[in-house]
Write a structure and sequence with these properties.
With about 290 residues, chain A is mostly helical. Helices cover about 75% and strands about 0% of the residues of chain A. Chain A has helices spanning about 1-30, 35-55, 60-80, 90-110, 135-160, 160-170, 170-175, 180-210, 215-230, 235-255, 260-275; strands at about 125-130, 130-135. Chain B has helices at about 1-25, 35-50, 55-80, 85-105, 125-150, 150-160, 165-170, 175-200, 210-225, 230-245, 250-265, 275-295, and strands spanning about 115, 120, 125, 200-205. The chains are: A mainly alpha (about 290), B mainly alpha (about 300).
Chain lengths: ~290, ~300
Amino acid sequence: MFLQQLLNSIAIGSVYALTSMGATLIYGILGILDIANAGAYVLGAYLGLLFYSLSGNILIAFVVTMIITGLFGILIQKYVYRPLLSQPAYIPLIASIGIFIFIENIIRLIAGPTIKEFTVNLPFQSLNFANLHINNVWVLIFIVALILMFLLWYLLKMTKIGLAWRATAQDLDIAKTMGINTNRVISLNFFLGYSFAASAGILIGILYNSIYPTMGSVVSYKMLAIIVLGGLGNPFGTLVAALLIGFIETMVGAYIGFFIPRNAIAFVALVIILLISPQGLFTQKSRI
Amino acid sequence: MYAIVVMINVGIFVLLALSLNIITGYAGQPNIGQGAFFGIGAYSGAILTGKLGIYFWLAMPISAIITGFIGFFLGLISIRIKEDFLAIVTIALNFIVAAIFQNVKFFGGSMGLSVPSPYWFGNPLSYHGYLILIIILIILVIIFSKLIEKSWLGMALGAIRNNERAADSLGIDTKKFKIMAFVLGTSIAGLTGAVYAHYMTFIMASDFGFLTSVSILSMVILGGNNTIRGPIVGAIILGLIPEVFRFISDYRLLVYALILILMIRFQPSGLLGDDSFVWQKLTNLRASYFKRRGA
């Protein structure tokens, strides 16, 4: 029973990690709290369903959706965020909230406000060991999360792009004077951030077999709790924090039965942890 | 009748925007949780008159004090947790407060709370009465804000806003002044909440959520942070948009979002902020007018 809950919490935590990774990457470089990332999550879910129903292949749906949403991220970055970089941090925050509301409503108007089913035929079955049940969607989540996290790690730590990226995160202006094309770094950052959120949207859509225009609203704030716990702009910290929040939520839901609804637990945990350690679980020194 | 209802709604937003301006404008502290304090004031007012039978006119200031007391704790938190981290703690506040209102039986749970209507010389307070009350409150809050701007408190808050560490090193008690800003700002929101609860006669936790906080903050920023004219104009514009675009009800939020993005994108210091395009044009116009008269 405990093992079952643990697996459950890891599956949820992995999706949380994918969802919040985009916001973390963006904060790491630009210092913007990007709520619009939750918009990319909704957009991803709908585009994923569209391309899955067009192609019938979940792999194609994933790749095409991630590319399109990523390009959308680049556009937003170029036309909304970049001109606002010299402003105090709450200005881009309000812009991002505007973008998020905009995406939600555009989707509601085009696709309708009702819940859509997201049924996918996966090439593998659910697994059963003794009394341990592993849902086949969980397997998909583990695979996607592992691939994307490995890709990110490889990009950041093993390539020259990653080096430029880390330099930009440390100091944008100095990196620019050293000849790094910071605009390209920022573009790539948004591309990855938005495509990660899109993949998380598809995974959640498949997991709960339903997508709807307001599916991003819970994510938009839970994502914030997770990236703050992870130390704002620290991908590794975000991964740990996402798994931790997934774990706390599942365990509190299963064993304690709190008087607070599931979605508020993340915030209670957040406030308590921040009061003990005001910079989150991982300090800014280890940013990106 | 319809016009009066709209004016009351906009007036409540003006009060909330002015209250938030003390925190985000004067003290320069991020706060995306003003809706929660609005809610705390509303629930305090509702319980004071509905369950304890206290007069509305007495319940109003008591609600403000209760809310300010809770705002005091946010002030304490703001000493330890700063900037973006503080912004997120204030977001968290929305959800924690809403969760408590929604799940504790005493606060009516998910059924909400109904509020008895207040009396004024034996008659129930009419919509006109509410409008007059809110206009009086707005005038008082404007005078109060002017007083803060001119006082030591305003100057100390300005120093904190520009550079907290420098202010600290100059011997300004930044902790004390920050807490004062939080207490003052939140208690005005609480007062507004108490009025709102009695005006609506029925309140629910979902009225005071994250979206309310975001729209209050948007009003302040969009109008011009750290001014008095800014939040008022911002609240009027964003408060009226849903009414003006009522005829395209389905597209209302879309238009709202679009206006928000465009205004922030092209006028980030607010429509009437000190270095906004519009305000500079206006001041230039005034200057040239006086110059011509002088010559």
